[in-house]
From TrEMBL:
Highest rank taxon of the organism: Eukaryota
Stretches the record annotates as Disordered: 1-35
Subcellular location: Membrane
Keyword Ligase assigned: no
GO CC field: membrane
Domain SLC26A/SulP transporter as annotated: residue spans: 68-447
Protein name: STAS domain-containing protein
Keyword Transmembrane helix in annotation: yes
Basic and acidic residues composition-biased segments: 1-16, 23-32
Membrane-protein topology: Multi-pass membrane protein
InterPro entries with a match to the protein in the record: SLC26A/SulP_dom (IPR011547), SLC26A/SulP_fam (IPR001902), STAS_dom (IPR002645), STAS_dom_sf (IPR036513)
Gene3D superfamilies for the chain: STAS domain
Length: 607
């Protein structure tokens, strides 16, 4: 968030007019949903104005908005292009695949996005997950993964399953992103030092491989990589040399230079490499003192439907077979993408309200359409969204200018990408993901009000991510973080108080189950009720159902059996109060002056 902080220091005046996106739909959404049928709600969800928000805000667009979006879009593009090239290397792909994803993600979100600051494209998380599931496989697997992830995101939007990301707690998210950052840094150390790439064996194996080969490091790559990291850090803090209070124009200029630091470092490194290559020849062959990116395929690929077979080592692999081989990636990749995108949208939404369903549709379309043009999986990027916010973006149309810059890079600049040193891309990645490290949260999780399961979930997720992989670590962290809510829901808790019922002067012992009563919590309730029945059989027992929000069949049957056991202890009938009307019929309860009791079968007549 360095860019956002600089913006606050730079701009003391109001940020200018902001076009409100989708507010009319949000305002009337709850009202219309309650009055319409399910069929009407479905038709409303297919309304072009809801699914294409550009149709709403483009009517209010003016010249001032266009200028602001142009500045923000160009600034964002200068950040996005070098990052996209670098993120493709994380996924083990040629650099152009990152640009394909940046171009299509930015372009599609212009029409479907609801948050002006969100920038869709390749990210470190998506790149690492892509590598986890497609390493050593043809590029077609990456395209199929993006296509399948998009379909899952569209399905989540259609069935309104965005709430699933709520199962990933803040400690698990922090551990996941911190571990991801460390894995990326470890994987890029080899490129930073000019070492040949080895087979990926996990974080610790990768770091040990680098440490054991330090003597083989290339001096040129090492010096260039470390120099680029130092330069990136220096440019990041450049605006602080001249505070806005001292000279606003100078501070603004330095601020824009800082925002473009990735592009500047890549450009300077490529120019240096080009100069060294053209001036140094070895037997008529141009050489450079560091490893270069190599040839990049120019232009945007033609439209190609992703659902097709691929040949691997002379064997034809069908589309369903590729889906089976991708396994859990078909769920985890879109789930992590949705988590990141919705979190970013909520962070930057002007009114704090996000149309999560529309964001799922937008993200799904970005991936489905992008996969038709050979794009890797995409989601929102927090760093680029912060740059967009700090640049004064007003509408999603700023993404059009970013997409045009990516298209320009693919069409004109790809021959020059050959000269980008790999050590420079490694430096850009290391500097970009270093801010994702959040190890300080461990200290906060060790103090109240954090629970012990929070710290345990963070530790398990972080360690397993580093040892077994990010997909396994995320699942393990989610499982541990769910222990606490499951303990309350499944086991349940019971409190006992004294109370006086209406129309009765006698004091009753009231037993109050909390939250829900499921079959797993029946034993705890039975133990509490029978303990009270034994302790004071002369006082009537009352079961207060006010806080119960769910009741399953096993629990309903157990309640009737429990009432019979209470009666055998001589404590009178078990009285239920604050029972929902629907439960009264299901439990076959009979209303009395004190509350509800279970109906007893009529005694058989002797006649």
């Amino acid at each position: 968030m360095e860019e956002a902080e600089e913006l606050r220091a730079l701009r003391q005046e109001p940020s200018g007019r902001r076009i409100t996106i989708g507010q009319e739909d949000r305002k009337d959404d709850s009202h219309t949903t309650t009055k319409s049928t399910r069929w009407g709600t479905l038709l409303e969800g297919l309304d072009p104005k809801r699914r294409l928000p550009i149709l709403t805000w483009i009517r209010k667009y003016d010249g001032a908005d266009a200028l602001s979006d142009l500045i923000a879009g160009v600034t964002l593009g200068l950040t996005m292009i070098p990052q996209s090239i670098a993120y493709a290397t994380i996924a083990g792909l040629p650099s152009q695949y990152g640009l394909y994803a940046a171009f299509m993600g930015s372009l599609v979100y212009v029409f479907c996005g609801t948050v002006r600051e969100v920038s869709i494209g390749p990210t470190s998380l998506m790149s690492l997950l892509t590598l986890e599931y497609t390493a050593g496989r043809p590029v077609q697997y990456v395209i199929v993964l993006a296509f399948a992830a998009g379909l899952v995101e569209l399905a989540m939007g259609a069935f309104r399953l965005g709430f699933l990301v709520c199962f990933i707690s803040v400690p698990v998210t922090s551990a996941f992103t911190s571990a991801t950052a460390l894995i990326i840094i470890g994987a890029q150390l080899g490129n930073l030092l000019g070492l040949p790439r080895t087979v990926d064996g996990g974080f610790f194996a990768t770091v040990w491989s680098v440490v054991s080969r330090l003597a083989d490091s290339a001096a040129g790559d090492t010096l260039l990589g470390i120099g680029c990291i130092v330069l990136l850090l220096a440019l990041q803090y450049l605006p602080r040399l001249v505070p806005a209070t001292r000279s606003r124009p100078v501070h603004r200029a330095l601020w824009y230079v800082s925002l473009s630091r990735n592009a500047l470092v890549v450009l300077l490194s490529a120019l240096l490499a080009h100069h060294l290559v053209t001036s140094n020849t070895d037997g008529g062959k141009a050489t450079a003192p560091f490893r270069l990116s190599g040839r990049i395929e120019p232009g945007i690929p033609a439209f190609e439907w992703p659902v097709r077979d691929v040949t691997v080592n002379g064997t034809t692999v069908t589309f369903p077979q590729m889906l089976v081989e991708l396994g859990s990636g078909l769920v985890l990749v879109p789930l992590v993408a949705v988590l990141a995108n919705v979190a970013i949208a909520k962070a930057f939404a002007s009114d704090g309200v996000v149309d999560a369903t529309q964001e799922l549709f937008a993200l799904g379309l970005c991936n489905v359409i992008g996969s038709c043009f050979r794009a890797m999986p995409t989601t929102g990027a927090f760093t680029r969204s912060a740059v967009s916010h700090a640049s004064g973006v007003r509408t999603p149309l700023a993404g059009l200018y970013s997409a045009l810059l990516a298209l320009l890079a693919l069409g004109v600049l790809t021959p020059y990408f050959y000269y980008i040193p790999r050590a420079t891309l490694a430096a850009v990645l290391i500097a970009a993901v270093a801010s994702m490290l959040d190890l300080g949260i461990v200290r906060r999780l060790a103090r109240p009000p954090a629970l012990r399961t929070d710290l345990l979930a963070w530790t398990v997720c972080f360690v397993v991510c580093l040892v077994q992989g990010v997909e396994v670590g995320l699942l393990c962290g989610m499982a541990v973080s769910l222990l606490e809510p499951l303990r309350h829901w499944v086991g349940g808790s019971v409190s006992t108080i004294g109370m006086t019922l209406a129309d009765s002067a006698a004091v009753h012992r009231c037993i109050r189950p909390e939250v829900g009563l499921l079959y797993t919590g029946v034993d705890r309730l039975r133990t509490a009720v029978l303990a009270e029945a034994r302790r004071q059989p002369s006082l009537p027992l009352v079961l207060d159902c006010e806080r119960l929000v769910v009741l399953d069949y096993s629990a309903a049957r157990a309640l009737r059996e429990l009432a019979d056991e209470v009666a055998r202890y001589g404590a009178g009938p078990l009285v239920l109060v604050n029972v929902r009307p629907g439960w009264c019929r299901a439990l076959e309860l009979h209303q009395t002056d004190e509350g509800y009791v279970f109906k007893r079968p009529e005694p058989a007549s002797n006649g």
